[in-house]
Amino acid sequence: MKKLFFALACVLALSGCKSSKALLPNVSGKAGEVIVVIEKADWEGALGADVRDLLACDCPWLAQKEPLYTLVNVPPGSFGDLFKVHRNIVLFSISQNIDTVGVVYKRDVWAAPQCLVNVCARSAEGASALLGDNGKAITGFIEQAERDRVIRNSIRYEERGIAGKVAPVFGGSPHFPTGYKLKKLTSDFAWVADEKQYTMQGIFVYRYPATGAADELQVDNIISRRNAILKENVPGMFENTWMTTGSFMPPQIEFLRFRGREFAQVRGLWEVENDYMGGPFTSHSFYSPDGEYVIVAEAFVYAPKYDKRQYLRQVESILFSWEWKEGED
């Protein structure tokens, strides 16, 4: 009997180890919020200024000033269970007794899905140096965590039927969460949007024949094609109005690779020709698997009464959920 009890205890213990991650509580906190665990003196000094310069700088792709992240300072002595379940944590470990200096990236330590950045240094000056050397990696890690949460929810709470109509036309589709509706679908253009009283989060998917030119996925060509296609497919509210690219902020391009898919990402501002509507957009341009088409998946936001950072972060994250139909990749 004792042997049987011992065997059962071992099985339960092992199963508990395997499922411990699943037992983590859900993360707390608002989207785009980061808890910074740091001593008050450092937060109010040069190190804190460097943290704010990195994490609370102006979003470079918005017309109005909005911080990249909303920061909440928590001193180490107050960093208890209430704060340990937050979605994004940047934890400073500063002591002369630190064995290994550097930046450590962890996921799902006290909650899920959580990201933790641990900056380990022997002095505040050393921590500032680490921020300078690893700033892009730190913001990229947090941004990816925010993006993954949106993708996870888009798949979990998917608006069934939309991707099933978009994918046959373009060979693939993003996952659209609950609330999105298919507004338009042709042989080369799709418009899906979540429209509320004062906001719109929209996604276009369109394609055009690839030429194979070396500069085909450069920003000028991408924007020229964008303007022509949107003029034809996205009319404004009044006669002789249509969506186009704004000139207030020059579009910015970068080339990314995400889960095996390479694309040109363009950020900019859209506006309505001969009208006063506008907002930010992000587009992903990439080739179809057979190389015959350039496919563009684009996210845009219209929210004249509200800050737009989170609306844009939400809808552009959906672009990253793109999946090819089976047999297309």
Give a topology summary:
Blueprint: H1 2-18, E1 33-37, H2 40-43, H3 46-55, E2 70-74, H4 81-84, E3 88-94, E4 102-107, E5 115-121, H5 124-156, H6 162-170, E6 172-173, E7 181-185, E8 189-195, E9 200-209, H7 219-233, E10 242-245, E11 252-258, E12 261-273, E13 278-287, E14 293-302, H8 309-319, E15 323-324
Parallel strand pairs: 1-2, 1-3, 3-5
Antiparallel strand pairs: 4-5, 6-15, 7-8, 8-9, 9-14, 10-12, 11-12, 12-13, 13-14
Defining key terms:
single chain; 329 residues; alpha+beta; 8-stranded antiparallel beta sheet; 5-stranded mixed beta sheet; 8 helices; disordered N terminus
Structural category:
alpha+beta
Please report which band the strand proportion falls in: under 5%, 5-15%, 15-25%, 25-35%, 35-45% or over 45%.
25-35%
Q: How many DSSP H or I helices?
A: 8
Helix content: 25-40%
Q: Note the main sheet.
A: 8 strands, antiparallel
Give an overview of the whole structure.
- The protein has 8 helices and 15 strands.
- The protein has helices at residues 2-18, 40-43, 46-55, 81-84, 124-156, 162-170, 219-233, 309-319; strands spanning 33-37, 70-74, 88-94, 102-107, 115-121, 172-173, 181-185, 189-195, 200-209, 242-245, 252-258, 261-273, 278-287, 293-302, 323-324.
- Strands 7, 8, 9, 10, 11, 12, 13 and 14 form an 8-stranded antiparallel β-sheet that branches.
- With 329 residues, it is an alpha+beta fold.
- It is 31% helix and 30% strand.
- Residues 1-20 have low confidence and may be disordered.
